[in-house]
Amino acid sequence: MFAPWNSGSAYGPFARGYSELWARGRVPRAGGGRWEGEASIFVEQYKARISFAALQPTKSARFPRHAGHKSEDQDHMQLLIRYVAVLRDERGQAEESLETGAATPRALYHELSARHGFSLPDTRLQVAVNDEFAAWDQPLRDGDQLVFLPPVAGG
Amino acid sequence: MSAFSLSDTPLAPEALARDLCHDGAGALVVFEGRVRDENEGRAVLRLDYEAYEVLCLKEGGRILDEARTRFGLLGACGVHRTGSLELGECAIWVGALAAHRGAAFDACRWIIDELKQRLPIWKREHYRDGTTGWVRCEACAAPGAHGHAHPTDGERHA
Fold this sequence. Notes:
- The complex is a heterodimer of chains A (155) and B (158).
- Chain A has 155 residues and is α+β, with helices and mostly antiparallel strands.
- Chain A contains six helices and five strands.
- A five-stranded mixed sheet of chain A has the order 2-1-5-3-4.
- Chain B has one domain: Aldehyde Oxidoreductase, domain 3, CATH 3.90.1170.
């Protein structure tokens, strides 16, 4: 029942090598081109990347300037943010890499919300860090991947 | 199959039920959730489901594991659709296999309730009037926008 694009190994933007291209800015972002054969949901509307499934690049691949050493300045972490559902609509793109001084997911969401005018307060959201549910006040680390989760509506 | 999965193609309930088998099982209870033509008074034409796949698979697996332990199941399966669905299509399928019907009924109900509350999946409805909306997001964004409560919002994993 697993769709091939969940396995992430065969094709699509998260196939091997994507992270390097992404880091170099060679891969089209939201609103860019479509990958042949890709089965991403809503690709027609958003060109959105729905999953980090195979996006498990090394830190050095995503952030070459941090390669091989820990960030010296914890005030300037580089994070990868992915936007889903209503947040993607409001942000106008599916993901972004940014430098921030925000120490926690909550501080980061407040920073982003002030910048982009998100309609949902953090009290209505959950947050995932590195593909796992996370606490709003846990310390962020350089290279973390975050997804803010709007109220779920499965089933 | 005895696991949680996502599918971007139509589900096959008969095949899913057939795969849940155990010689000690006297009961299989299944739930099939379908796309309905109405939600909160608005005429719905179709749905889009968007899943955070990696986390969905993790959380769905945890729910099924919890159900097996909690209800002593001999098998459990859950599949959620992604992508665009038409009215009447199967959006989610749950099967609970147990020695006796009591545990199978209880477990099936528990599993579907947990999946609905915990899976990071979002549903966008396309309405007859031409508009669309993310369920439980836009209409509910303003406090007091309408009457019903969302007791689980913001409380889980906080």
